[in-house]
Amino acid sequence: MLTTLQKPKTTPAAGIKRKASQMTDDAAGPAAPPPLVASGPSAEAPSASPRTPWGGLPKPKGKPQRQHYHSELAYQEALAEFNDADISWIKKEQATEWCKNDADTLVKAQDKITELKAEADAEATATQNWVEQARLKRDAERAVAANAEAEGVADATN
């Protein structure tokens, strides 16, 4: 059993340290495989030195926020006004289109009503004419029957 003051025994293979003269000149591990996709000029840094990192395009230098706050605010307000005007124009166009469609529908309905009224008037006139002709025919038949009856009575008295 080991105590905290005792060191564990090492095996000769694990415990032997090599000196620089005993180091082997083994070959290094296999090289990294080439990339599957050829890297184009856009993927490489523009610098010829591989140690220089490519930081991307430089950021544009702008004015500090306090210097262009009012112009940015004016731009945002103008953009909001334009969007409001655009939305109201779209709504007006939609309402106009709906009104045109409604007006077209109303005109078609009025035309249909006029057409149906004309048909109803024609049918009423035809029915009225038929009733008048039937009444005249009935009156004529009654007159003929009355004449025949009167002649029959006259013949019987003669």
TrEMBL record:
Domain of life: Eukaryota
Keyword Coiled coil: yes
Region (Disordered), start-end ranges: 1-70
The protein's name in its UniProt record: Uncharacterized protein
Keyword terms, alphabetized: Coiled coil
Organism, as annotated: Fusarium xylarioides
Biased composition range(s): Low complexity: 37-59
Coiled-coil portions: 99-151
